[in-house]
C-alpha cells in the first residue's frame, strides 16, 4: 500500500512564504516523477510544478520565479517552496507521484493541504 502524506499548508499574508512537503511511503521501487497540483472550487485541478528523478523541473507560468520544487530521492519526498505568495495562489494543493511499486506503475495523490493567502 502506497501513501502520500502532505504537510506545510496554512494561512499567510500576501508576500509571505510557505513550504509544502510530501512524503511517499509503502512498497515503492522508484518514483520517476513527483509534483504538485492545486485546485479551487469550481475549477479544474492544475499543475503547479513537477520534478523528475534526475532533477529536471517544470512550472506553471503563473508561479515561475516565485515557487521552487525539489526532492529528496533517498526519502521519497518532494518539497514546494512558495515565495511572494499572492491571493490568487489560494487553493488546495495536492501532491502527485507517478511511481513503480513491486507490481505495477500508477499515479498516486495526497489528501490535499489548504493554502490561503490573505490580501
Provide a compact summary of the structure.
The chain is 0% helix and 61% strand.
Report on this structure.
With 119 residues, this protein is mostly beta strands. 0% of the residues lie in helices and 61% in strands. It has strands at 3-7, 10-13, 18-25, 28-39, 46-52, 57-59, 67-72, 77-82, 91-101, 105-109, 113-118. The strands form 2 sheets. Strands 2, 4, 5, 6, 9, 10 and 11 form a 7-stranded mixed sheet that branches. Strands 1-3-8-7 form a 4-stranded antiparallel sheet, with no helix packed on it. The protein is globular, with a radius of gyration of 14 Å. The mean pLDDT is 97.
Beta-strand residue percentage: over 45%
What is the β-strand count? Answer: 11
Order of helices and strands: EEEEEEEEEEE
Q: So what's the overall shape?
A: globular
Q: Provide the residue-averaged pLDDT.
A: 97
Class from secondary-structure proportions: mainly beta
The largest β sheet comes out as:
7 strands, mixed
- Unreliable spans are none
Helix content: under 10%
Number of helices: 0
Euclidean distance between termini CA atoms: 41 Å
The radius of gyration over CA amounts to 14 Å
Amino acid at each position: 500500500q502506497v501513501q502520500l502524506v502532505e504537510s506545510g499548508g496554512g494561512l499567510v499574508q500576501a508576500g509571505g512564504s510557505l513550504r509544502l512537503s510530501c512524503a511517499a511511503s509503502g512498497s515503492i521501487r522508484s518514483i520517476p516523477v513527483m509534483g504538485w497540483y492545486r485546485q479551487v472550487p469550481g475549477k479544474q485541478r492544475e499543475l503547479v510544478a513537477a520534478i523528475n528523478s534526475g532533477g529536471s523541473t517544470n512550472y506553471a507560468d503563473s508561479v515561475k520565479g516565485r515557487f521552487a520544487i525539489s526532492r529528496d530521492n533517498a526519502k521519497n519526498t518532494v518539497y514546494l517552496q512558495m515565495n511572494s505568495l499572492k491571493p490568487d495562489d489560494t487553493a488546495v494543493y495536492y501532491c502527485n507521484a507517478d511511481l513503480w511499486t513491486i507490481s505495477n506503475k500508477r499515479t498516486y495523490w495526497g489528501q490535499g493541504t489548504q493554502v490561503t493567502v490573505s490580501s
